[in-house]
Specification:
Blueprint: H1 3-21, H2 23-30, H3 36-59, H4 69-93, H5 96-103, H6 106-116, H7 124-141, H8 155-174, H9 176-179, H10 185-203, H11 218-246, H12 248-253, H13 258-270, H14 276-294
């Protein structure tokens, strides 16, 4: 891979950080009118159909080999649909801080899995730097106004969130790597999103609260548009491009930076306060990510 290709690969993952980091504040405002599971069902259905349309326009065909059907279905069902249901339900049963902290374990889970299964080489220094970055994430997430409380009351929600993190790591990211050797990120992401949205639509009648269509405001529709086009299509395709180019471990390391951008975004657009410990945590994350990517 040439120097230019490396730069492009890292820029793609910076795009992921920028689009997904802004997701938290934008989606939070939408959930007041549109419950999480129906929101996700609409988001992934629209994004997936649009991605497949673009893929067909660029590639002139959308064929899938028979031997890959099970793999793509697994990524779509478990990595998108079930993952979103587990995350949404878990968030409802635990605190936002608990949820954010548990989801931040994804890079470490990925590194352990690909390292133990010999799918990718992961050095000891990378593990230490990921632990340092996770320490920075703790400082960023656990601001003085945050509520972190692990107890029997939150146990079910915490376990569901951990299962969501495992699904996202194993099925959405790691299991997609071999498929990206055959299909473009556009085609693969499009199919996975459509399949995942079918799972979510099945879950919609059982979700709570139900949609009240005439109470959905303009802010929620704008948030859905952002989730479909920016974080959905652009962010997810850039994520698969990053995995295809840099591998799972190096791509997952970028997820540590997402909380930093989320704090910055919410400061400028939502008016949220930034605390000194979050600045220290952000500096630790950037240092650790820089060192991990060099190893």
């Amino acid at each position: 891979m040439g120097i230019d290709e490396k730069v492009i690969s890292h820029l793609l993952l910076v795009i992921v950080v920028l689009t997904w980091g802004a997701n938290f504040g934008i989606l939070k405002s939408a959930f007041q009118d549109l419950p999480p599971i129906p929101f996700a069902a609409m988001r992934f259905a629209i994004s997936g159909i649009l991605l497949l349309a673009i893929a067909y326009w660029r590639e002139k065909e959308l064929g899938i080999r028979k031997e890959d059907l099970a793999g793509i279905a697994m990524v779509g069902v478990l990595g998108v649909g079930v993952c979103q249901i587990l995350w949404s339900t878990g968030l409802d049963l635990t605190s936002a801080s608990n949820s954010a902290l548990i989801l931040s374990l994804q890079p470490l889970l990925a590194a352990l899995y690909v390292g133990l299964t010999k799918r990718e080489p992961v050095g000891r220094q990378q593990y230490w730097n990921m632990l340092l970055a996770f320490g920075g994430v703790i400082l960023v997430i656990l601001k003085p106004t945050a509520s972190l409380h692990f107890s029997m009351t939150t146990l079910l929600g915490d376990l569901l969130t951990l299962l969501a993190a495992i699904c996202a790591t194993l099925f959405f990211s790691i299991s997609s790597k071999p498929l990206l050797n055959v299909y473009s990120p556009l085609r693969l992401m499009g199919y996975c999103m459509v399949i995942g949205s079918l799972v979510l639509w099945i879950a919609v009648p059982f979700s709570n609260p139900h949609i009240v269509w005439d109470r959905i405001g303009a802010k929620a529709w704008w948030a859905l548009g952002y989730a479909v086009v920016v974080s959905g299509m652009v962010g997810h395709v850039a994520w698969y491009e990053g995995i295809e180019r840099l591998g799972v471990t190096r791509s997952m390391i970028y997820q540590f930076i997402i909380p930093i951008w989320a704090v910055i975004f919410n400061y400028f657009l939502m008016g949220e306060k930034v605390f000194f410990q979050q600045v220290v945590g952000g500096a630790l994350i950037l240092l650790a990510v820089h060192r991990a990517l060099r190893n």
